[in-house]
Write a structure and sequence with these properties.
The protein has no helices and eleven strands. It is an all-beta fold and about 120 residues long. A hairpin with a 4-residue loop joins strand 7 and strand 8. The N and C termini lie far apart (about 40 Å).
């Protein structure tokens, strides 16, 4: 089993910055992909950013240019640094990981961390 634990959410003013963290633990041979999704009330869950092993990071158009995703492979942790935050960035942010263990590939979700952008 694998557990994804998010942290770093909270209240931030428009124009401010925030860094989210997600640490994976458990039965892991390789983390193929780690990323962040978000979901606001009444909306579909959407991909924000993702990074795969040996590949360039991907960003949604809505956050491109003001977000940076990075990985610390030694800690099995992914980070999302967001700047110039807007009220429309308000959502529950979910960590997502695709993990290989014993020749089986599975997808996992964290429980989410709330980001509120408001003055």
């Amino acid at each position: 089993q694998v557990q994804l634990v998010e942290s770093g959410g909270g209240l931030v003013q428009p124009g401010g910055s925030l860094r989210l963290s997600c640490a994976a633990s458990g039965s892991i041979f390789n983390i193929n992909v780690m990323g962040w999704y978000r979901q606001a009330p009444g909306n579909e869950r959407e991909l924000v950013a993702a990074i795969a092993s040996g590949a360039s990071p991907h960003y949604a158009d809505s956050v491109k240019g003001r977000s940076t995703i990075s990985r610390d492979n030694a800690k099995n942790t992914v980070y999302l640094q967001m700047t110039s935050l807007k009220p429309e960035d308000t959502a529950v942010y979910y960590c997502h990981a695709v993990i290989t263990y014993q020749n089986t590939v599975r997808a996992y979700w964290g429980k989410g961390t709330l980001v509120t952008v408001s003055s």
